[in-house]
Fold these 2 entries.
Entry 1:
Amino acid sequence: MPELPEVEILVRHLRPRVVGERIRDVRILRARSVWDTTPRQLAAALPGRTIRRLTRRAKYLRFDLDDRQVFLLHLGMTGRVFVTAQADAHKHDVARLQLTRADLVFHDPRQFGHLALGEDSLRGLGPEPLGRAFTANRFADALSRSRAPIKVRLLDQSLVAGIGNIYASEALWKAKLDPRMPCGRLREAEVERLRVAIVRTLRAAIRFGGGLSLDFASTNPVDGLFYHGSGSRRENPSEHFDVYDREGQPCRRCRVPIVRIGLGGRGTFFCPRCQS
DNA sequence: ATGGCTGTTATCCG
DNA sequence: CCGGATAACAGCCA
């Protein structure tokens, strides 16, 4: 679930709940989820500090503290972050930060997420797709030097930061581009179409997420950030995405059944008629 | 019930 | 340098 839009919604939810709060204590419950430092260092650096800012960079949450230290949190595939008054740890809790009167919990069953002290993890990231640096020139230039399928490149965070497997398929459908198209073969107009499609897709997803009532603490994929699972768990089977997880269902533009293929080892969905 | 799928990304190869 | 495969892991679903 957590790609750029989901992380953005999470940050907006958390911001009023954590900014201005003092960190009283830190419990690291899974050492291997701490990167760029030791759990001991992280647990020592935070207590006594006040959270000054909470922002998003790509799929990272960025916490700025009152002593200019920074720590980052990446949700991986299944990470959740929420504030709770309950102080007891649960299975798959990675870390718990005791704030003034509640705990900030990082919960991550599949353990692909991480915490990091400092900004090193942000070094290699490309431009924010919703920021000014995501220009036609820069995007076209980066794409021109690759022969890989465009869908695979969209997942490269150094090209543009924040797109994941779901919104890569969604943006390509919006731009009417075949996900298998080698980057270098895209024409200038197609690259620009894709750039605009990315921006619109992500903005629409943030707008969509902002209108949901989410249970950030829930382990139920239907209630949490907005990927609604597949099969019987799906909340709105065909309302939500245009192509993702819609294999066999009609394209919203031309009614031809959506196709699923593998690209770069990931499920990829597209309309074989519109996207060619 | 078992095995194959999954929203991420670092790292290792050729 | 580029690109593909793999690994890290637990839970859900067929």
Note: Chain A has a mean pLDDT of 90.
Entry 2:
Amino acid sequence: MPELPEVETVVRELQAKVKGKTLSSVDPVFAKVFPPDSDSKKLQGLTISSVSRRAKYIIFNFSQEDLHLIAHLRMTGEFLFDQDGENNRFIRCIFHFTDRTVMYFCDMRKFGRLEICSDLAEYFKKMGIEPLGDDLTVAFLQKRLQSSRSIKALLLDQSLIAGIGNIYADEILFLSKINPQRSGLQITAKELLALKKNIKTVLQKAIDDTGITLPDYRERANKDFYYNVYGRAKQACKICGHKIEKIRLGGRGTNFCPVCQP
DNA sequence: CACAGCTCCTGGCAGC
DNA sequence: TGCTGCCAGGAGCTGT
């Protein structure tokens, strides 16, 4: 499922494929994915000037600067082109370009969303900082993680840091040697430093790998090899050999090593 | 206000 | 084999 690194990769692919193309029509096949009040007809005739990203949101920018198309892939959303998309069973919206190419928004589980937005600052006003930007500092973490909630829940809170999902939260906590159940209040200054470092390195490495060694992010095929804890419940910890445990925390499957993350 | 828990959705898989 | 029912989870919403 796409998290920030995968979304970043999708944005780069989209930028290469659709920048400069002009929409001739937009056909919302499934109303919930593209809500009726967002009036997709407004996009007709607009030329895509760039594709960018905020957290896990994809932003299509147009020649008309006060209109944006925002896409969120959620669990299973994807953009497919031409023959790759036309036979897909889960087409939710079809974008026709004037050069006769076609972009399909497909999403098996119907969680993904498309939305038209005229004010990006307003749209993202509740969104937390970008984890790969300069805003993520030890001082920021020290201040914003002061909460009785679990550190795992805090890492997943998009209004604090925007873009960390369930998989990378588990990986970041493993590398930081922090038990996911601990409260934000209990995290020491030394651990905050490790957290800050690992948030950046885990996400950046995933971006690099998704773009280079794992082009098919949809199936990060060898999970067992790639991840330390995610998807490895009951298997041996790569550091100490103890069984990786899986629990539910804040409604999320949470994998960790009880020895390395006491 | 802060936080926990529910909801959406469907393919895949464990268990019987 | 064939069925049932649970699980996966991002983010918005509802309830406490």
Note: The beta strands of chain A are 23-28, 48-54, 57-62, 68-72, 77-81, 91-97, 102-107, 113-117, 245-249, 252-256.
